[in-house]
Amino acid sequence: MITISHLDKHFDRLHVLKDISLTVQTGEVLVLCGPSGSGKTTLLRTINGLESIDKGTITVDGKTIDPRTSEIRALRQGIGFVFQQFNLFPHLSVIDNITLAPRKLKGLSREAAEAKAMQLLDRVGLRDKRDVHTDTLSGGQQQRIAIARALAMEPPVLLFDEPTSALDPEMVGEVLAVIRELAQDGMTMLCVTHEMGFARDVASRIIFMAEGAIVEDTTPAQFFTAPESARARAFLQDILGH
Amino acid sequence: MTLIEFLSGRYGELLLKGLTVTLQLSGVTLAAGFVIGVLLTLIRLSPFWIVRQAVGLLVDAIRSVPLLVHVIFWYFGAPELLPDGPRMWLYARDVNFICAAIAISIYAGAFISEDLRSGLRSIPKGQTEASLSLGFSSLETFRYVILPQAFRISVPPLLGQAMTITKNTSIALMIGVPELVYQAQRIQDITYEPFLPYASATLVYLAICTVLTLASRAYSRTAVKSRGAQA
Amino acid sequence: MIEILQEYWLQLLIGGFPHTPLGGLALTVVLAVSGLVLAMPVGLLMAVPLRSRLKPVRALAELIIFYIRSVPLLLHVLWVYFLLPAALGVSFPPAITMLITLVLFNGAYISKIVVAGIDALPRGQTEAAMSLGFGRVQTMRFVILPQALRNMLPSLVSQLSLLIKETALGAAIGATEATQTFLDLANNLPGQAIQAYALLALAYFALCYPLLLLGRRLERRGRRTAKIALEPAS
Question: What is the pLDDT of residue C18?
Fold first, then answer.
């Protein structure tokens, strides 16, 4: 459902993405990992049109992602994005954060949008936070609301940009549990993360990137037991500490 | 003569007239200054570099010149530039008040636009990205996500501007607008006694600023409380 | 405009000096700079009760500053102009009256800047100095104030440009600073008044705009160094 071919991108003189090609099928869960500065977050952001690209194409369900066109807005509605820093809207309550896009973009009535939002709040285990202001929530709770907000548009695919990196260690679990459940329900997902235990359990494929290129594209079993490249071995050694 | 005796006579009446003019001038310039401030801020969001720079320079230039000089320019200078018709129209009206209002509004507008802009800039980039990622357009993002937050942030500085504007209207006395300090001066000219009229004017400003300060505090408190209480 | 400048530049620059006291733009600059220099110690002094441990002292200091900030500068000028001579029995020339007012008025604002500069420092600074055995005053003198003053620099630059603009109110009591000088000139040049006023505005712009830019640059640099200092070494 996502096809990326020969993607190239520079930040000024820095070559951040080098000839990236990648295909994602419906229902797949891809974990993107690699050392910092390897381009994985940038790659994820290009799929949502949050970053422009220099060369190559990205298509989602056969439609081309191009941030310069006005179709990008319609396409983004079908591609959920969860940020490292949550980016909840602080001027809105929890329920309004979730219903804003369905009401304004899909024209849902307030009742319909709120009914749907309550289901999502149930799903992320935060039903009782409905009318709370977002800045009173813990980081883990904010991220779960952010996931609910992305799900409210019923996107066929969800992108996660280091969803647990800004969290205190004791809150990582609750967010990963929500993502894990989504994976079990068959949601197509791409997730940039350093949580290797989670990657091993949930991913159907591991994309290992370094210096702007995809170095390995393989199964978790293969990646964690017998990585092919020296770079991946060094990365795993660093991150797993053995 | 005590302050009470002083105020209960015709001097009290003069001061009350002065206060009315001060409040009228403050109200008009606050409203007009806000509109000018919003317009300048919107233009400064233009995608064109040259437009942003030009308006930025204009705002800085307005802020670099004393309000008194603005007032003098608009009262003594600008009407000369008008064609005869509009100039006669202007002089048939309360030209002092109108020119003072124009000068103070423009001056205030420049400061208000700075407040609004720093309010806008204090909103993290992630807010725009989150909104775009949901499928909102730039305009919708501005309307639903950025603007409400910017206004909320800007309320305390705007109340501060209201205070500054009220004080600034006193400068209009230099072109003969009969506001509060003007009336105090006039009473002094009659009585040769400066203390009571100036003390009265001072008390009025203290009262106005107290009200605005309390309003600002109440706003910050409710803003905090409305979030705290629902947790 | 050029003609006015060619004809009257010396008068606009220094007034009737040396036949009369210094006037014109020079008086504006002298008033603003000496006003700031004198307002700094006043501001520091006023900051002491603002940070007192005794609540009534703090409240009184806050009240005085609230008073100064709530009343229009023009009214302060008139108070000093009419009532100081009455109270002291001596009268001052308008320029000195203006200077006294500017020092007191800006002292109040600067005291707030000082307090903000001190409060912006991490608590660890005081604690570190105390742990070395410094007393309260020594901590303030050797550790806190030097840092706070550096933080205050951008605000002080902005304050100077505010002072330049405030000196224009000298015209209300006949101090022959720039605005009064130009007003006098415009009276003698019927038909060319608007050019004189445009020139006056330009003169203030030339004085204040560079300060505005400098203040902005210093603030940016301050934010950058503060960020570097706060980022953990990784």
Answer: 80
Query: Measured between CA atoms, how close is B228 to chain A, in angstroms?
Result: 7
Using a CB–CB cutoff of 8 Å, tell me whether B19 touches chain C: no
C132 to C126, C146, C153: CA distances (angstroms)? 10, 17, 28
Among candidate residues A190, A225, A232, the one with its CA nearest the CA of residue A208: A232
What DSSP line would sit under A135-183, residue for residue?
GGS-HHHHHHHHHHHHHTT--SEEEEESTTTTS-HHHHHHHHHHHHHHH
What mean pLDDT is reported for chain C?
87
With touching defined as 3 or more inter-chain CB pairs under 8 Å, the answer for chains C and A is no
What local confidence, expressed as pLDDT, does residue B80 receive? 82
For B179-228, what is each residue's pLDDT tens digit? 999 999 999 999 888 899 999 999 999 999 999 999 999 988 877 555 44
From the CA atom positions of chain B, what is the Rg in Å? 22
Average pLDDT over residues A57-68: 90
Cβ of A85 within 8 Å of Cβ of B230? The answer is no
d(CA A160, CA A192): 6
**pLDDT of amino acid A242:** 55
Phi, psi of A92, deg, nearest 5: -120, 150
Q: How many Cβ atoms are within 10 Å of A241's Cβ, its own excluded?
A: 6
Taking contacts as CB-CB distances below 8 angstroms, the residues of chain C near B62 are: none
Global confidence as pTM = 0.83
Compute chain A's Rg from CA coordinates.
18
Place of tokens 């008073």: C67
Nearest chain B alpha carbon to C172: B174
Q: At what angle do helices C55-70 and C94-119 cross, to 10 degrees?
A: 130
Q: Given pLDDT bands bounded at 50, 70 and 90, which one contains residue A20?
A: very high
Contact partners, residue C155, CB within 8 Å, separation at least 6: C113, C116, C117, C215
List the beta strands (DSSP E) in chain A.
2-11, 14-24, 29-33, 55-60, 63-64, 79-82, 157-161, 188-192, 205-210, 213-218
Strand A205-210: give its sheet, edge to edge. Answer: A79-82, A157-161, A188-192, A29-33, A205-210, A213-218
Peptide bond into B148 cis (omega under 30): no
H helical segments located in B77-146:
78-81, 84-91, 95-121, 125-133, 138-141
Alpha-carbon distance of B181 to C126, in angstroms, equals: 46
Percent helix, strand, coil in chain B (nearest 5)?
A: 85, 0, 15
Residue C37: phi, psi to the nearest 5? -60, -40
Could you tell me how many residues make up chain B? 231
Q: Which chains touch A (3 or more CB pairs under 8 A)?
A: B
Helix, strand, coil percent content, chain A, rounded in steps of 5:
40, 25, 35
Model confidence pLDDT, tens digit, residues B32-41: 999 999 999 9
Residue contact B230–A136, C-beta within 8 A? yes
Q: Closest to A83 (Cβ–Cβ): which among B126, B152, B230? A: B126
How distant is the alpha carbon of residue A184 from its chain centre?
16
* Token pair in block for residue A133: 């202001």
**Cα–Cα distance for residue pair A149/A129, rounded to 1 Å:** 14
pLDDT of C225: 65
Q: How far apart (Å, rounded) are the C-alpha atoms in residues A163 and A186?
A: 19
Q: How many CA atoms lie within 13 A of C211 on its CB side?
A: 23
What is residue A20's DSSP assignment?
E
Using CA atoms, how far residue B160 sits from B67, B106, B109, C166, in Å, is 17, 17, 13, 18
Helix, strand or coil for residue A2?
strand
CA distance B49 to chain A (A): 19
